[in-house]
Design brief:
By secondary structure, the chain is an alpha/beta fold. The protein folds into two domains: 129 residues, Beta-Lactamase (2-Layer Sandwich); 221 residues, P-loop containing nucleotide triphosphate hydrolases (Rossmann fold, 3-Layer(aba) Sandwich), CATH 3.40.50. It contains 15 helices and 14 strands. β12 and β13 form a beta hairpin. The chain is globular and about 70 Å long. It starts with a helix and ends with a helix.
Length: 402
Amino acid sequence: MDSGESLSQKIEALAGKIGTWPDEPLRIGEEHVDGLMLWCVQQKASDTTLQTDRPVYIEVDGILFPVTRRPLDSADIANVLAHIYGADALAKLASGVDLDLSFEVRPDRNTRVRFRVNITAILSRGRDSVQVTLRTLPSLPPTLKDLGIEEKIVENWSPRQGLVLITGPTGSGKSTLLAAGCRMLIEREQGCGKMLTYEAPIEYVYDAILGPQSLVAQSEIPRHLPSFAAGVRNALRRKPNIILVGEARDRETVMAAIEAGQTGHLVYSTVHTVGVASTIRRMISVFDPSERTERAFAMMETLRLVVTQALVPKVGGGRVGLREFMVFDENVREILLDLPIEKWTLETQRLLLRYGQTMEQTATKAFKDGIIDRRSYLLLTKGFTVDEHEEAIDKEKTINDL
């Protein structure tokens, strides 16, 4: 109850502090969008959502707040889309695709505020409508120290060659972790050499990060190249030291990333999976059965590190990243390569305790240190819902009492 009361008090305090957008016009035109977004950033919004028939909402510390007095209509949304994307936004949405892009506001010549944008068609009040989500991006990527990344991950972040995978669900901070790791490589004394990134969209830029021995070139998919797989093929013609692939989402991209790792490159990518073992299973499953064994062995020979991250509410406000990870050193790879691929998932789960760290271990430490609450701890450490956890715990207590 106390936690519920404190949450209510926190929401009430934040709502009073934020209020509504003071410069809200009668009609939102293209000329108002930059001002709105700058004001949202000043309120420490992590995300801003503009949706037909709803007020503008911002998210602060994981809580949504309406910040306009009236809902947006289709004309408001059309003006927002024209400013952020262009005149053909509605036509693109009508073709059945969503739009991912980056957007920036320049309040002066030396400052720029960047956003990751998703534009999706929705149904509202029986008619086609739009939701625009803008995630605020820091001007500089954080450092690995800022994120509290485990020392073992930092030590194994930069193998000589091979494949490093950052995994987790949508919104778990994969891109932020990857950008922090790239920053470390750029800033180190020997630099990173030539780094090529292929992202959809580009979230973090490295222009202001000093690295005399580092040269970074960022390409956006599909703005500059049609796909991630095409990006990797492009990279191999440019003699890079490091290749960053925004997402290994299909067979062609996974194959291209593996081949790049086999030919002496260091490749980083993200995968939408939760857990090291499930990442191995997912990577294998993208291949056709006829080629699965051969491709799986090639992947395992290339794999060097898998990190899976979850963002959970932090006691006292904000969110904290918790991680499961495993280093795929020579010993691990040999153990797995001696087994049929059907046993890799189970064996990886067993090896986690020796060569990495499980999510349960991470969550347990965070809970004992008072960083996360009991609800978050239970959600992270078990495979069923909080209500089921409560029921199971009550049953256990009853049995023990008897």
